[in-house]
Amino acid sequence: MMKKYSATLGSLLLASTAFVFAALLPAGAQTIAITGGRVFPVTGPPIEGGTVIVTNGRITAVGANLPIPAGAQRIDASGKWVTPGFINSSTQLGVIEVSQVNSTRDMTARGKDNIAAAFTVWEGLNPNSVMLAPARNEGITTIAVIPAGGLVSGQAALLNIVPGTTTDMIIKAPIAMVAEIGDASSAGVGSRGELLVKLRELLEDTRFFQIRRAAYERAETRDFAASRLDLQAMIPVIEGRLPLIITVDRASDIDAALRLAREYNLKIIIGGGAEAWMLADRLARARVPVLTGAMNNIPGGFAALGQRQENAALLRRAGVSVALIGNAGGGDEEAFNVRNLKQEAGNAVAYGMTWDDALRAVTLTPAEVFGVADRLGSLQPGRDGNVVIWSGDPFEFTTRVERVFIGGREYPGMTRQDMLTERYKGLPNSHNTPIAR
Amino acid sequence: MRAIVSLILVATAACATGPRPVTDNPPRSRADSVGPPGRGASSVPNADPFPSSYVPYPARTTLIRGVNIFTAAGPLIRNGAILLQNGKVAAIGQSVDAPADALVIEGAGKYVTPGIVDNHSHLGVYASPGGLALSDGNEATSPSTPHVWAEHSVWPQDPQFPRNLAGGVTTLQVLPGSANLIGGRSVVLKVVPSRTVQGMKFPGAKYGLKMACGENPKRVYQSRGPSTRMGNVAGYRAAWIAAEGYRRRWDKWNTDHKGDAPTRDLGNETLAEVLRGNILVHNHCYRADEMAQMIDISKEFGYKIRSFHHGVEAYKLADILAREEISGSLWSDWGSFKMEALDAVKANLALVDRAGARAIVHSDDPSGSQRLTQEAAKAMAAGIAAGLPVAEEQAIKWVTINPAWSLGLDDRIGSLEPGKNADVVLWSGNPFSVYSRVERVWVDGALLYDRLDRSQQWRTDFELGFVPFDRN
After folding, report:
1. Is pLDDT above 60 for A179?
2. Which of A54, B307, B357, B380 could make an SS bond with B321 (beta carbons 3.0 to 4.6 A apart)?
3. DSSP secondary structure letter of residue B137
4. Closest CA to A386 of A377, A395, A394
């Protein structure tokens, strides 16, 4: 959509008209039939010349030679590839606008003593962020927004990149609690071992708080390591209902995370996991998923000396559920370049992952990890109408995103970047620049 | 090449045995009882006190055939061949005659490109595994530090170097950071194993001068100044005024040798060399309006800007960059992380290229540097999407001959033509595909990386024991 609308200045007007028009339609109250494409359901083999039918925002049929319902809007995808919308499994998109402008950074809580379990990061999300549309236009329909910093960073949410309010965007919140281990200084302790002491103390206090809630309210308990709201927020974690994403790189720290999970019956997810490949078999046996990238190979710190690009592929080969993160190694521009998720997937293939697994790692696996596989991550009847039409192999640079549907709706694609490009495309004729002499 | 090698050996010997008159133009006045001073001991244009001691690695005459060759000097040669002999490209074309003893590599549909050139790197000066101990890229103690040289911070055992080589990068410009208005001298390195920085230095390469606009200097020096953009500009101008006076004093003395020589000043020495045209200016600058002001400053003092680095708004004055013959060293898709980076567009490279200015994909990043053809591919695709078709033959120039030009080395590297240095990369497939990988890299005809042969994979001293696997 974006590409079509970026052709001329005149089409800018068309784009804004389309926006108004789209806003008047009831959400997804129509039937769309995407026909003739190479359809990747992810749960099964690709369907050549397949059809995807989306009715009232949900997928109602996927297959070859399907009858097209009367009144359906037909979209010819002949020669194109059709996939579920991509899911970026870890980002600060929407909670950072301009990284170096503090007033636009909302991904870190101050917490109490580096514990901020009650912090719900999505409540600071800006649905009007200009960075959201570029990600959607490159095929990412859904993002896991996670908090960062401290020892317990807070709670993460899964959101669709749709205009509106945060409420309109939310698929599921919370999807996980986030903790960072392996960096004693950011946890405010002196060493790795002390960091684990602190985490154990929090888990035990949560358990005690849960049992002695009434006594706590009467002020008849000892002091706890965390505030009331933080302890409250940790209860689903110790009950194994809410996964704990543990951001960690060094193999020994991953080992510690696995021991902690066993000790307290936690459901954990490893985030980052630079050296996770060294424990691939154990992670597979413990059914612990890993969220990671496929473009990092620099021993960028003493906790990541074993970082390698084959990490994702080695984990997958051992049977670990791997979800890929766009621009996993990114610095300042991280949120802006969430859109490079497909490049990450292509590199995962170049470094040993099968193509099918790489597609899974940006669609169905993250949906499973976050407990929303009944809605997202595959093209099957009953799933949300999050569908992307690509001009070819989605991981290749030459491939264009042709259409993006979220909940069966298409959103106008003109981004701030497109507007700037249009404005300056006519140089030098259309512009007298101040220093032209 | 042989002649150059022997020159280098002479220079090395001079270094090892103490001061000797090894410059072409030694100062005459002090040649009395203590003997003449060493290289650079007087403020002489082209003085070279830390000369390159690089010697090419042993090379076999090598024929690569059955490959598709992006020469960066013409159309793609399909199913062609290239002969590497005596460290140079000896022949290239559809078919090439090779001596009987040449090592023959059957390309079987693979691709060949020139060695990739990254003109914006901090390898060695911000070495892995990082931390304060290895943070040597910004002399952030004064807003103007033209007296520092990046090569004095480079750690040749930085494990990022072999990863860069495995990404096909054969030449790097290592720059000081952007904390300062004037950050110091850059150095051009060959990406080769060496005990010393001198052993990596590209023989005969000009130095660069790092300058920086905008937010970084005014943020770093918020409390002592400059704390504003107008303060930044006053700072550049004050430095050039001092340098101009210095240049005149020394040029006069070098001509007439009247009286005592002026006192040397390392910073002004570097700036005077810029004014004499012997050092190339690499100017970190994001915004179009600031680039325009930097162009005016360069005209006020009579120097040329060789390249604007980062230039996320280069597309807004692409025609002016073309007119002023200033290259744009750009990212494919970085932006939005600070106010001056807000207007980044993915079509930047394509727009600059179309305007006729030299477009360059640079990295400023040890990870991106390993995948510069992927970055170029993204920028090429963005150009096509914006209605600005870019051929692969053009995009390959963004990572080879154009950055080579920005370093003043386009007569030696950056394209595959007879007589040029045999810096060559063999790729498993089209280098603009996400699925392609570098298989082999030759520097001056010597095979220095082979993906399938661990004995041909450079491991730095640091990696031994610390990095728990062998790369391949």
Report:
1. yes
2. B357
3. S
4. A377
Question: Given this model, what pLDDT does residue A328 score?
Answer: 64
pLDDT at res. B42: 83
DSSP code for A115: B
Closest CA to A338 of A100, A91, A126: A91
Q: Extract the tokens encoding B379.
A: 């920028």
Tens-place pLDDT, residues B406-423: 999 999 999 999 999 999
Nearest CA in chain A to B123: A298
Query: Is A3's CB within 8 Å of B385's CB?
Result: yes
Q: How far is it, in rounded angstroms, from Cα B148 to Cα B15?
A: 21
Distance between B130 CA and the closest CA of chain A, angstroms: 6
ipTM, 2 decimals? 0.91
Q: Please, what is the end-to-end C-alpha distance for chain A in angstroms? A: 40
For A392, other C-beta atoms within 10 Å of its C-beta total 14
Mean pLDDT, residues A86-98: 95
* Residues of chain B contacting residue A424, judged by C-beta atoms under 8 Å apart: 315-316, 318, 351
Mutate to test the interface with A, among B290, B305, B345, B467 (most CBs of A within 10 A): B345
Beta carbons of B337 and A99 less than 8 Å apart = yes
In the block, residue with structure tokens 């052709």: A7
B278-293 confidence digits (pLDDT tens): 999 999 999 999 999 9
Cβ distance A350 to B436 less than 8 Å, yes or no, reads yes
Handedness of CA B161, B162, B165, B166 (dihedral sign): negative
Please indicate whether, in this complex, the C-beta atoms of A98 and B467 are within 8 angstroms of each other: no
Give percent of chain A above pLDDT 90: 85
- Burial letters for B66-103: b for 16+ Cβ neighbours within 10 Å, e otherwise? ebbbbbbbeeebeebbbbbbebbbbbbeeebebeeebe
pLDDT at A233 over 90: yes
Question: Please, is B30 exposed, middle or buried when counting C-beta atoms within 10 Å of its C-beta (0-12, 13-18, 19+)?
Answer: middle
CB contact under 8 A, A300 and B130: yes
Spatial CB neighbours of A204, under 8 Å, sequence gap ≥ 6: none
- Rounded-to-integer distance, Cα B310 and Cα B215, Å: 13
Contact (CB, 8 A) for B45 and B269: no
Q: What is the pLDDT of residue A64?
A: 96
Q: Report how far residue A118's alpha carbon sits from residue A237's, in angstroms, rounded to the nearest whole number.
A: 12
- Measured distance CA(A189)–CA(A340) in Å, rounded: 35
- To which residue do tokens 């905008």 refer? B214
| Mean predicted lDDT score pLDDT of chain A | 90
CA distance B283 to B209: 8
Count of CB atoms within 10 A of residue A382's CB? 10
Percent of all residues in chain B with a pLDDT value above 70, rounded to a whole number: 92
Contact B336 A131 (CB under 8 A): yes
pLDDT band at B429 (very low <50, low <70, confident <90, very high): very high
Across A40-56, average pLDDT: 98
pLDDT for A282: 98
| pLDDT, tens digit (0-9, with 9 covering 90-100), for B165-216 | 999 999 999 999 999 999 999 999 999 999 999 999 999 999 999 999 999 9
Q: How many CB pairs under 8 A join A and B?
A: 159
- DSSP for A60-108 reads EEEEESPPPPTTPEEEE-TT-EEEEPEEEEEE-BTTBSSTT-GGGB-S-
User: What is the model's pLDDT at position A369?
Assistant: 98
Residue B187 CB burial class (10 angstroms; 0-12, 13-18, ≥19): buried
Shortest distance, CA B129 to any CA of chain A (angstroms): 4
Give helix A416-424 / helix A9-24 axis angle, nearest 10°: 160
Sign, CA torsion A234/A237/A241/A246:
positive
